[in-house]
Design brief:
Elements (H helix, E strand, L loop, with lengths): L7 H62 L11 E6 L8 H9 L7 E6 L2 H9 L4 E4 L3 H11 L1 E4 L2 E4 L3 H8 L7 H9 L5 H7 L3 E2 L21 E2 L4 H6 L3
Length: 240
């Protein structure tokens, strides 16, 4: 008895499924290869940045020692980046103050952002000072925030950073392909600081361990709000 040929629809369906399977395998293979290359590239860049940070620190120590040996003090460069944390809620906030806090992207209590420090930013900080605390972040603070609390703004959604490919697709820039690139751009106020800062969702931190002192008094009076200079890093370490 002659064999009955398979229906044409079944043959087409099987061919289509086979084509789909092969395309899927190729896509997975290409994606894995891209991730592997990005991982190698991130490692190389991490080493380069670490070497640059160490060199800058050693240079600073040398300049301080030289100044001290001549009986002088070394005047360090002014900070380029400021980190701002909102420490008070929305109760009894004046409309102008509320608008400035919205411009700074500090819509919720304990929201934290990075900004380049300039005259206009300094003026805004002084106007909303009773509602925020701010200072100059260390490399350790920037790195902890990006790795532990870093969320990207993708299509209006708050998305956790999962891998380097996600960063590369988000910024579409050859200078920003891994997490260490984000840390470097923020810490050094790099050429792409604005794109990186706006690409992050405002960092959401927890209330500080041990609580706050008096958030309605200035830091220099034993309170919490205002400029903490480099001491802001100790405060943020209790919140990350």
């Amino acid at each position: 008895m002659p064999a009955v040929p398979a229906p044409e629809s079944a043959v087409k369906r099987a061919a289509f499924k086979k084509q789909q399977t092969e395309a899927f395998k190729k896509a997975v293979q290409a994606q894995n290869q891209e991730k592997s290359e990005l991982k190698k590239q991130a490692y190389v860049r991490g080493l380069k940045y670490a070497k640059a940070y160490k060199g800058a620190e050693q240079k600073l120590v040398t300049l301080r020692r030289q100044a001290k040996s001549h009986g002088n003090f070394y005047l360090e460069a002014a900070p380029k980046v400021v980190i701002i944390t909102r420490i008070r809620g929305i109760a009894q906030v004046a409309p102008k103050t509320k608008k400035i806090l919205q411009l700074l992207r500090l819509r919720q209590i304990f929201n934290t952002v990075f900004l380049k420090l300039n005259k206009s930013v300094h003026t805004l900080l002084r106007m909303v000072e009773p509602y925020i605390t701010y200072g100059y972040p260390s490399l350790s603070t920037v790195r902890k925030l990006v790795y532990k609390r870093g969320y990207l703004k993708i299509n209006g959604q708050r998305v956790k950073i999962q891998d380097n490919k996600q960063i590369k697709d988000k910024f579409n820039n050859k200078d920003i392909v891994c997490t260490e690139d984000l840390v470097n751009q923020i810490y050094t106020a790099g050429a792409h600081f604005r794109a990186v800062s706006n690409g992050f969702w405002p960092f959401k931190l927890t209330p500080p361990k041990g609580g706050m002192n008096q958030k309605r008094r200035h830091f220099i009076e034993g309170g919490d709000y205002g400029n903490r200079d480099t001491l802001v890093n100790k405060f943020l370490a209790r919140m990350i």
